[in-house]
Every structure is written in C-alpha cells, then in structure tokens.
User: Fold these one by one.
Assistant:
Number 1:
Amino acid sequence: QQQVKQSPQSLIVQKGGIPIINCAYENTAFDYFPWYQQFPGKGPALLIAIRPDVSEKKEGRFTISFNKSAKQFSLHIMDSQPGDSATYFCAASTVHNDMRFGAGTRLTVKP
Amino acid sequence: DAGITQSPRHKVTETGTPVTLRCHQTENHRYMYWYRQDPGHGLRLIHYSYGVKDTDKGEVSDGYSVSRSKTEDFLLTLESATSSQTSVYFCATREGREQYFGPGTRLTVT
C-alpha cells in the first residue's frame, strides 16, 4: 500500500497562479519530508525538504507547509511559470532513510 | 545529476533473458539505491547498499539482485527478465538525508 498519498494526480494552472500539491502519511516514524521535481527524460531532483519541527519552509518561489498533527504536508509554488511544468513527487523517510514516495503530480503551467 | 551515470540509458530485451544495469558515481557516497518508477506508483525501492559488499532488500526486490564491489559502482541484475519488469530504473546516492538521482534507464521487456 502507498505509505505516502499524494494528490492531485494532475494539475493545470495559468502562469502566475499558485498550484498546491498535497501529501499525507501514516507512519509517525517519518522525520524527513523532501519534494522532488522531475522533467521528462530526467531523474528526480531535490527541490526542497522539511523536518517536522517546523511548520513552514520557503526556498525562492517554493514553500512547504507541514501539519504534524494531521500528518499532512503540501507544496505551494508562488507565481508559477511555464518552466515549472514538471512532475512533482513528495516523499518521506525515517532515520534509517527508508524513503517512500508519493505517486506524483503532473503540473502544467499554461502561458 | 550529481555525478551519477547509468548505463545503458535504454534497453529492449526479451522475456527470460538476463539483464544488468550499471550505476556509477563520482561523489564517493557510501549509500546507493536502485528504484523503479511506474505510473501511479511513484518510485519504489528495489535494493540498496550501505557499503562495498553490503546490500539489503527494498520494497520490491523479488526478481532482482544487486552487487557492489567498488564504492563507485552498483549493479542491478534481472536474472530472468519478465514483462512486469518493464519500467524506468533510477539509481540514487545519499549524502546526509538527501538523495541524488541518476538520469535513469528505460527497460522494455518484450
């Protein structure tokens, strides 16, 4: 079964919009939550990551919001651009680095 | 791709044939991983290595074996390929908690 549930499967926004991708987990041993960005024909690349002792982390236009009590975290992309069109994966890992990935969200940003 | 190369990048093989995929890293990272990526499943861990000759199974290890004789190389072998092993395979290395992925190998088993 999927230990990290990701939604939506696909998302289309206009340039400048704020796409939001959500993930939920059950295993409370997870203590590291990265997001990966993947372009067609390429490997996933680490975008941003958060640990459960903070509720929000920003890096440029990308923000992770984390809700420990709800066991949910989300990625927001501010002022989205066509170049942000890619597949995004959330993930979660324990201290033993047993990393589990969500199923992915295909984002399209229309010009 | 953080100094990770994979070979071959594309391969088509027939059911029942053995296949070996190679991952090479230049980062001297201790941990290396093999994942498969399938639509609707994200990435799933096949096997990983925590040092030369030290390997362990992941979530979907059936039908796969690995070997690591040098820090920089991690091999994934399908002893007898099946159509269910058609997938894109990614190698990754780890530094701290961060994993870095190679460019992938697209394998088609006919």
Note: Residues 4-110 of chain A form a domain with the Immunoglobulin-like fold (CATH 2.60.40.10).
Number 2:
Amino acid sequence: EAGVAQSPRYKIIEKRQSVAFWCNPISGHATLYWYQQILGQGPKLLIQFQNNGVVDDSQLPKDRFSAERLKGVDSTLKIQPAKLEDSAVYLCASRTLGTGVEKLFFGSGTQLSVL
Amino acid sequence: AQSVTQLDSHVSVSEGTPVLLRCNYSSSYSPSLFWYVQHPNKGLQLLLKYTSAATLVKGINGFEAEFKKSETSFHLTKPSAHMSDAAEYFCVVSDLRGNQFYFGTGTSLTVIP
C-alpha cells in the first residue's frame, strides 16, 4: 500500500515569510496528525484531525500556524509569519479509526529551515 | 496524564553486542506503549507495540521489549547489534483510547564496527 506522502521534502525561507506543507495520508485513514520535531527532540503533536474535523489543536500556535483538511483526505499546514524557532521537521501521520490502538504511519517529513 | 522518559540520549555499542535502550512511563491507567525507529532522512517506523497482552513483545529486526508494571518500564533490547540498527529510537505512550501519542525525547544509537 502507498504510504503517507508529504511535500515538499525541504524548504528554506527567511523569517516573517509564509510557508505551507502538504500531506496525503494513506487511503481510508480517517485520523491525521501533524507533528513538529525540533532537532534533538521527540515529535510534538500540533493538531489532530478526524475526517475533516479538528479533534485537538491545543498545542498549535494559532497566532501563526493554521491547518485544514477540507475534504477529510489531504491536509495542509501553514505558518505565517515564520520565526526562527519554527525550524524543524514537520511530520504528518495517519491511522485507521478502529477500536484498538492502531499504529501510526508516518510520512518522511518536511524539513523547514528559517533563516 | 501520560508521558515517557527515555533515560539515555545517546547509546553506543559495538557490532555484535547487546543493545539496551531504556524507557520509563507514567500513566494513570494500563498504557499502550510503542517503540518507533527513525533512520536518517526516513519516516518513523513502528518496531513493536504493547497493548496489555503478553508482557514480552517481539518486534521487527530482532528487537523486543518487556513491559514491567512494577518498574513502570518498557526497555527495548536486542541480543546482537547490527550496523543497520544505528538510528534514533523513540518510546511512545498512547492515551486511553489510543487517540493521541506522546513521544519521548529519543535515544540515538551508534553501532561501532
């Protein structure tokens, strides 16, 4: 089966610029997550979708970050304006909506460098 | 609240020797625990998961982990390290419904030839 697709693979921008990341989860996966992984740290959840609804965005810096999943499939994560501390790898993950604890499938991530 | 603590940020072993990556968890209920591996420039991959069945869990690539409730630990082991095992390893705990996943800070494993 195809995996979680993310693009772009790398992005370099200057501070105060805007940037957007795209994620296409595995077909049929209702739950989608965006994580931020700063160098040397574990991934931190930014936002969780179930279909096209937001389940948890409590750790999303809403003054500059936004995310959407309009049709319950693809998702975009946007940063506007970017700060130096936003330099990180942004990971998208998806899983099925089952009764058990299903594993997460991760994309390869988008590595963002803010100069 | 759930959390995991990975006790070592870096571990170095010689090829062919045992690997031990330590993880302690904190949870107010019987947790579901996972180990994920992240190779450079690759996505996170599940090694194994514990969901209250057998306490000794076998995963891919010869890794296994033992759930010890009395010690609140879920250490990852492998009898003999291979060069290809060099990567970042993350211990993960999920919430009660398996809806959210909380990552440790990671352990970087170096394998010395």
Note: The two ends of chain B are 41 Å apart (CA to CA).
Number 3:
Amino acid sequence: GESVGLHLPTLSVQEGDNSIINCAYSNSASDYFIWYKQESGKGPQFIIDIRSNMDKRQGQRVTVLLNKTVKHLSLQIAATQPGDSAVYFCAENLLTGGGSNYKLTFGKGTLLTVNP
Amino acid sequence: DTAVSQTPKYLVTQMGNDKSIKCEQNLGHDTMYWYKQDSKKFLKIMFSYNNKELIINETVPNRFSPKSPDKAHLNLHINSLELGDSAVYFCASSQEGRGRFTEAFFGQGTRLTVV
C-alpha cells in the first residue's frame, strides 16, 4: 500500500466518525496557517486557513483550532467520508527577509485512512 | 480551467542529463514557487519568485536554476541530474500584497525519476 515505507503519522477512522489531525508549528512569529489535503498523485489542495489573531475557524465539515501558547494547530473533520482519505499537511507562513517576503513551511503530514 | 499547470507530469532520465520543468499560472498571482517532495512526502520549498525576481533560495545546489520570463511562468532547469534528485516537484503560486499572504495554489506535480 501507499503507506509502506512512508513513516508518516497515520490516523485510521471509520466512515462517519469525526477525525482530528494535529500539528505542531515551529515559529511563534508565524501569522498565517493553512491546512492542505493531498490525494494520491495530486498536488496539495487548500482546505482551510486561519490567521494568528483567531483561535478557531469553521468551514464546511472542517474546523481549525489554533493554540498559540503551545504552538499547536488541529484540523477537525466531521462525519469523515472515504473521499477524505489523503495526506494532510499543516503549513505556517512567516515573514522573512527582514519582513519583506513570505515563506510557507510545511509540516510532516498525516495520512488519514477512512474505512467504509 | 487549470490554475497552475506544470509539464511534464512524468520525467524519466539518466544521470548526468539536463532537464527542464515548466510551470504556468493563470491566476494573476505575482509570486511563484518550486517545492520538492521526497519519498517520505516531506514538502520543502526550493525557490520563490515575486514579479520575476528571486526572493527565496533555500540553499538548493546550483545545478538547479529557476527562470521566470514573466510573472505567470516559472521554469526549473536542472543540470547534471543525480539519483538523489528523484522526487516530485511542485510549482505553486500565491498573491502577496498589502502585508498579507493568501494561500498557495499548487500544480499537479512532476514526478522526476533519475536512473
């Protein structure tokens, strides 16, 4: 299977359950965070974002929580479906170059498998 | 309508060859990127261009040379390919401005295999 040799954190859930994917970010100065979904053979696809002046944002079936105190992000997916099976990445955005340019840095990724 | 398109999708080549990957975005964004994804799915930024100007170069070997003829295109040329260059390369674009950043849109990737 695809997960062999990947050594990604994995999460396996039953269809209909809620999923929670966690992410720790590295830089307390990061001011924008994005969750991406990557299906097999495709590029990362935007799911939801949150700015550092918020601690929660909701989309359709997804919620992102931001805890700046411990530098932690989570993605909650409600009523998980087989089509949600993918690798999920959190990304943090940081101003670099003396505050003139943005750099988007990705976390390790979590493989979500939804069992029918 | 494809927002960020890159070609080719697959590229198999021998060590020592020189190859190019092309990328185009029709989103009107002014910033484009190249990312490399290794076999463990780790995504790492290589380069960033803003309005044809190199902004970020993440200590990538100088065998890799990005070229941006205009802000809608960012191509990646790789000289003297090595086995370790085998990976999936993603092009992306975003809109930066007014002190804010919006999400990056990614292409479908180019799977490079060096044999």
Note: Chain B touches chain A at residues 4, 31, 33, 35, 39-45, 48, 50, 55-56, 90, 92, 94, 96, 100-101, 103-109 (CB under 8 Å).
